[in-house]
Write a structure and sequence with these properties.
Length: 211
């Protein structure tokens, strides 16, 4: 949902953002780092959905409010995802680089997302793949180019190595997602514009050897 007025005046947006992925991949820690700049290694697993609000002064004429829906990765809640996904404008899809099976889980969440929610012009909503816990391991047993190709094939807007613990690429990944949501909002009546920001723009923010 967004609220605006005539060009040149102050505009406010309210976007529902999904934070999804398998159980234990670090979704809640990522949200806590992004919203509160806080990290704790002692957090209970999310049961159901946790809601967090983040307010961003995007520029001098734009305010963005994000409703972050941190959805449990438990299979029971995945089966209820249609109700949780309704009205979402973007998604952060998280996997744990120390557990490569969670990458397959992230792709499954993305497929489910694309089946259940689209933009106003019928396209998949912007989604960013997060390779979390990069301070503990590699993004994949494959080269990063493999993740680039995978993201293109699966329709991700981009991907980032992130570490909630080290506060690495947390703000950058979220900002990239919001930028693409705003592009969709501005061009949802123009064929082919939504989602045209390439993976290259995401990878320019990444430093693969820093983790």
């Amino acid at each position: 949902m967004s609220r605006g007025s005539k060009p040149g005046t102050f505009t406010e947006h309210l976007f529902k953002i999904l934070v999804i992925g398998d159980l234990g991949v670090g979704k809640t820690r990522f949200v806590n780092r992004y919203v509160r700049n806080h990290f704790s290694s002692h957090l209970k697993l999310t049961l159901g959905v946790d809601f967090t609000l983040k307010v961003i002064a995007w520029d001098s004429k734009t305010m963005v409010r994000l409703q972050l829906w941190d959805i449990s990765g438990h299979e029971h809640f995945k089966n209820m995802s249609r109700a949780y996904f309704k009205g979402a404008r973007g998604a952060l899809v998280v996997y744990d680089v120390t557990k490569e099976s969670t990458l397959e889980g992230a792709l499954s969440w993305k497929l489910d997302l694309d089946r259940k929610v689209v933009t106003d012009n019928g396209r998949p909503i912007p989604s960013v793949l997060l390779a979390n816990k990069c301070d503990q391991g590699k993004v994949s047993s494959k080269e990063p180019r493999f993740i680039d190709r995978l993201c293109r094939e699966k329709g991700f807007t981009g991907w980032f190595e992130v570490s909630a613990k080290e506060n690495f690429n947390v703000d950058e990944a979220a900002t990239f997602l919001v930028k693409n949501i705003l592009l969709c909002e501005e061009s949802d009546t123009e064929e082919g514009q939504c989602g045209d920001v390439t993976l290259k723009q995401a990878s320019e923010k990444q430093l693969y050897n820093c983790c």
